[in-house]
Amino acid sequence: xxxxxxxxxxxxxxxxxRSGRVYADRCAVIDDERHFxxxxxxxxxxxxxxALRNLGVPEGGRVAVLAPxxxxxxxxxxxxxxxxxxxxxxxxxxxxxxxxxxxxxxxxQVLIYDxxxxxxxxxxxxxxxxxxxxxxxxxPEDEYESLLRNADPWRRAVTDECGLLSINYTSxxxxxxxxxxxxxRGAYLQALAMxxxxxxxxxxxxxxxxxxxxxxxxxxxxxxxxxxxxxRCLRKFDAGLVWKHLRNSNVTHFNGAPTxxxxxxxxxxxxxxxxxxxxxxxGAPPTPxxxxxxxxxxxxxxxxxxxxxTFGPAVICEWRGEWSELTIAEQAQIKARQGVGNxxxxxxxxxxxQGNDVPPDGTTLGEIALRGNNVxxxxxxxxxxxRNAIPDGWLRTGDLGVMYSDGYIELKDRAKDIIISxxxxxxxxxxxxxxxxxxxxxxxxxxxxxxxxxxxxxxAFVTLKAGAGVTEDELVAYARAQMAHFKAPxxxxxxxxxxxxxxxxxxxxxxxxxxxxxxx
Amino acid sequence: xxxxxxxxxxxxxxxxxRSGRVYADRCAVIDDERHFxxxxxxxxxxxxxxALRNLGVPEGGRVAVLAPxxxxxxxxxxxxxxxxxxxxxxxxxxxxxxxxxxxxxxxxQVLIYDxxxxxxxxxxxxxxxxxxxxxxxxxPEDEYESLLRNADPWRRAVTDECGLLSINYTSxxxxxxxxxxxxxRGAYLQALAMxxxxxxxxxxxxxxxxxxxxxxxxxxxxxxxxxxxxxRCLRKFDAGLVWKHLRNSNVTHFNGAPTxxxxxxxxxxxxxxxxxxxxxxxGAPPTPxxxxxxxxxxxxxxxxxxxxxTFGPAVICEWRGEWSELTIAEQAQIKARQGVGNxxxxxxxxxxxQGNDVPPDGTTLGEIALRGNNVxxxxxxxxxxxRNAIPDGWLRTGDLGVMYSDGYIELKDRAKDIIISxxxxxxxxxxxxxxxxxxxxxxxxxxxxxxxxxxxxxxAFVTLKAGAGVTEDELVAYARAQMAHFKAPxxxxxxxxxxxxxxxxxxxxxxxxxxxxxxx
Lengths: 520, 520
Hints:
Radius of gyration of chain A: 23 Å
CATH class of the largest domain in chain A: Alpha Beta
CATH superfamily of the largest domain in chain A: ANL, N-terminal domain
Largest sheet of chain A: 9 strands, mixed
Distance between the termini of chain A: 78 Å
Number of domains of chain A: 3
Oligomer: homodimer
Number of helices of chain A: 18
Strand content of chain A: 15-25%
Number of strands of chain A: 25
CATH topology of the largest domain in chain A: Rossmann fold
Shape of chain A: globular
């Protein structure tokens, strides 16, 4: 037996080593005016490895990157691990005050930043202190390019596939942010799963609508490369621009939260596409109205579910050919389910407070729990939080859901978003889905308002489609006609919804507003 | 850090655990009249695990299976590892005398055999001695079914993913057979690669034309299950029956050596298919004539390359969209190349006798060498052969080829099949390809004949298409018009080609015949 020949550490950087050879002369990256072939991308990433070594980054050192979805942030997903270092991709929508806490917590000694974020980068450096080496990037004249030019291509071999690859800080609406530790092995397997589940191949063109700093772009930063497909970068999400790419750039795949899809679906430029485009969505279940609209537009929606702690989408609503013959409404009902573990995931469970499986009856609520190779190592330098999240070898997601008899799960609510009215549980998601079925409603968020009689009652915050009109009373009446009366919102407030830096609706802000309403 | 939650041993049996839940009620296996859903397949395999435990098979014990491509052989790919045992899938085309040597060498204590192979099984048992427990299988009344019925579903967890999963004996035209040891990790990754590279998904129907006893069916035994596709079993390859399935059973995928494709391509029932069918071929490069014919029939051919020692196809001729716009002849030339490492393979090399890379110029001949997670552990109880095959951490394939500047390799010949004429190398494959371009030729095999002047000269053995006619002189003249004169065959002999038990052409038999020709 010669173990040397048959064991190679699993690392997602190996996909670039392969595509850099196999697809050497083919397009890897398009970022505005800049185009890189796979050979060029590989060369640049190896030079980044060399450049970080030249900057004195040791094995296991942390390198933070603050950038939109550009080639720089993509390259850091390879160049930083090539240097043997750990990638900390920062959420560029956070203020410098939050980011400096994250950078300090991670112990990063280098911060690569996009030239448009110069002020934020300088603020972070000032708050963190003198040890942080800043590297400006994004344009040909920025230092990043000269560092690459002056470095030799270099990489450190990965010896421990369970070693630390990246730290992804959760957006954490409250409390201090937690650094989710990704390992090479998990990212490798998750990237393969994403490639396979979304049918990426070497003729695909992937549009970067999903931030790469979200779970390393759900591991598509590596999966798109594994397929040898094109990374089409996008500095900023803009629905009109995305429609331009969908029409003119032969885009075959993109990802985004339902919020993003909503912005696209009812955009003035929205029009049926001549070829099939696949979009993977997660973060919230797509509503039937949205799925119907996307289907009209020729966009095939796959519903995924996961957490930062699970390398992004560990769960997929696996679609069966026979389901495509159902009505759109029936399809939407199936597609609203989060689904089953993806092809590399281990078993998915819905457990009670004692950690026992709830019956798979589609109604008994429990917490969704996961384990397997695409679960994090733990939270960086936070043993207590790690133990709380993984009390018994199963990661608790904090999401409440049910298990169906066919093994598919459906999320009912975040544990903290459930509304308890007269002793009955109301899933805010259920009320939101009902409201979104109204033709005038574009998006809805429902939260609890304290009530002297019922304990809590649901209150809805609603954004209408452009040009559409409906009154509060009409919408309440609509909801009461569709569902149990106690679940229908007692009040409806129209307007834009508050979002956090990652685009998620901030329900704690809405709860404050609901409290204000009580006082009025 | 809680390692328990984020590390799960990689094993291809996990794909059945998943598909048994996710696709529980969907069709997993069709074997003549018998249909099993994925839940049933999982249950049967777990019962096989329990049954083998009941028979006293210990952890690490070997279980041999002698069967055509039936559900029994498929089930053994899960049930045997569920029992913690090691699968030895026997080549049913070998005589009992060879098989008894293999069974004895493997130390198998149980032999599951198909009822049609009763005599062979009894002969093996007689030659191996009394310790071998025979289990007849294949029909409802056979013992295998009662063992399953009376066993509890059971499995032993895989603790070491680099542990032994199966032993695949090479057909070895000469010398004693060697037992190639597969590990769980390699089979898991190779199965994922096969699924991805051939675009299998849960709506695919895979026809089992490739023997499952070849490299565990190139790991498609596990890969088809990973995709949740249908295993359509086939007791015996019969071109007419395969055409019936292609027309009537919605088959989307199958695999086979070019020999198998040749039998299909010019079969009287061959007709263009209404939907795309993918076939993966390996063992020899498909000729341009064959590729052109398959294209007419609506069958998309992927060219793969590998050895028993590499879990089957570690190499794939990755196809790029833009190549589909070339002429069929140009496409065939590209597709004749073996290609590049597949998505889970490590780098592929072509090395000289000192183990150094030859220049990637498309002409310098060297030996193809491989390493990575889809390389065997070694040969079972044969340290010397293992060391010879893997002298320096790189598996030597025994195949001679060239490396092109784009990183694709092309096989020129087996090291032992090269013909040296007047000091010049003649690749037998090149001569064969030239002859196959003649419209009357179905298949050709070229070997060396000793010659007093040139040392060796090429002699061709040719099978003509049904109803086609060409003379020896015409064919020699045709070859001389196409290639360097010294490469053209000096003689052509018409007739059927001798094959070994795995269907490969036996060139050593042809060399004997060529020697006979010299004496006449």
